[in-house]
Amino acid sequence: MTTRTHRPWLATAVDVWAMNSFSYLVALPIEIIIAGMSWREHLQVRLVALLLNSLVARPFGLWRSWVFQRFNAQETDGFWKLYLLDTGVFLSFQMPLYVGNMILGGAGAAEILKAAITVSLIAGLLGRPYGFYLDWLRTRVGLAAATAPVKEVMA
Predict the structure, then answer these.
(1) What's the angle, vertex CA 42, arms to CA 90 and CA 45, rounded to 5?
(2) Does residue 153 fall inside a structural domain?
(3) Name one GO molecular function term (predicted).
(4) Which of 41, 128, 135, 142 is 20 to 30 A from 71 via CA?
């Protein structure tokens, strides 16, 4: 498939879908099972997350692409380089937003602390799968992955 450039509306739509779909599937067991939130609290937090994720999805995608460019990340790089980059990008961007989202959603201090510690501990399990998922979705619609040559990434 040919990589299309200069389609910011498509890149935004893909980034928003990726972030919201991935976030919900990850947050569900963390918030309900581990943090012990009620379904009502969970749905309130997820509603706020839908809004916030939709607002930050594209900036996160651009941040990720920028970091990958700065470290000259390529598809052929070893697992550990891509893993560490995606984990660092994920933590540096998502953790402050996640905690803020829980505060806005009405979660209590103990719930926020438990959820934040859990997300920190499993960030290594989330960063690379999300990055892979985002790149996979982008390439399905003809957009460049973060590991694509620089001129293609900032579409």
Answers:
(1) 60
(2) no
(3) L-amino acid efflux transmembrane transporter activity
(4) 142
